[in-house]
């Protein structure tokens, strides 16, 4: 079944009141929560993760740093926080090692990631080749910016499904019920969603909490 990962982020930055937002969402039925490596201090991130763990949430830490030093430092921070998943960031052997030592599932980006908010570039052939290489290196899964791809998203998704057998998280640009249903039909392992919820654009007129419930209904009913 496809999983929804509710991101406490907006435009690729963790919202400053992430902890308060989480408390507002506790009654919605969420089980998967994520945030990014920018937007909160280390102390604030620690308080957030402690609160998430108290509620038995599965915690995803997304790296948006692009250089090796920043990515490794973020991975070290994730290990110190005790999250279950590191997603995003380019693949680096050092990050893979940190994740393995601390029993953290590792889902790096594939393809050429540029800008902030991040955009995916490159041919489908190069992206799928990179995905196969990551699979051979033993990562737990992949983080794919399918809806931020500057090419044919539908073709990219089809080719990625054929290219690898490890799970994929679709990150960024999941901003409509139609896209959620498409990912569910494709049996994608999971997707992240944040900005569309905070901007209440998924289903205009509904509250933030109802936006989240609508996402959960879509994945639970399929």
Please give a quick description of this structure.
This protein has 222 residues and is α/β, with parallel strands linked by helices. Helix content is 43%, strand content 19%. The protein has an eight-stranded parallel beta sheet with strand order 7-6-5-4-1-12-11-10.
List key phrases describing it:
eight-stranded parallel beta sheet, TIM Barrel, alpha/beta, 222 residues
Describe this structure in words.
With 222 residues, the protein is α/β, with parallel strands linked by helices. The protein has a single domain (3-220), classed as Aldolase class I (TIM Barrel, Alpha-Beta Barrel), CATH 3.20.20. It has helices spanning 18-25, 42-54, 68-81, 93-101, 124-137, 153-163, 177-185, 195-198, 208-220, and strands at 3-7, 9-10, 13-14, 32-36, 58-63, 85-88, 105-107, 112-114, 119-121, 142-144, 168-170, 190-193. It has an 8-stranded parallel beta sheet with strand order 7-6-5-4-1-12-11-10. It is globular and about 40 Å long. The model has no long low-confidence stretch (mean pLDDT 95).
């Amino acid at each position: 079944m496809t999983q929804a990962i509710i991101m406490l982020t907006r435009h690729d930055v963790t919202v400053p009141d992430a902890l308060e937002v989480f408390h507002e969402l506790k009654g919605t039925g969420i089980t998967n929560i994520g945030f990014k490596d920018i937007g909160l201090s280390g102390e604030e991130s620690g308080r957030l993760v402690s609160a998430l763990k108290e509620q038995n949430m599965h915690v995803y830490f997304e790296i948006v740093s692009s250089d090796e030093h920043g990515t490794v430092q973020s991975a070290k921070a994730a290990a110190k926080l005790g999250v279950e998943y590191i997603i995003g960031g380019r693949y680096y052997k050092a990050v893979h090692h940190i994740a393995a030592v601390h029993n953290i599932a590792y889902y790096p980006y594939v393809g050429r990631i540029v800008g902030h908010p991040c955009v995916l570039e490159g041919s489908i052939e190069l992206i799928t080749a990179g995905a196969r290489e990551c699979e051979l290196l033993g990562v737990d899964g992949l983080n794919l910016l399918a809806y931020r791809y500057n090419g044919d998203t539908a073709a990219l998704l089809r080719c990625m499904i054929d290219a690898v057998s490890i799970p994929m998280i679709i990150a960024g640009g999941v901003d409509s019920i139609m896209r959620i249903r498409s990912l569910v039909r494709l049996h994608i392992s999971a997707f992240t969603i944040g900005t569309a919820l905070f901007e209440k654009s998924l289903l205009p007129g509904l509250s933030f909490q109802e936006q989240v419930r609508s996402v959960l209904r879509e994945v639970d009913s399929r």
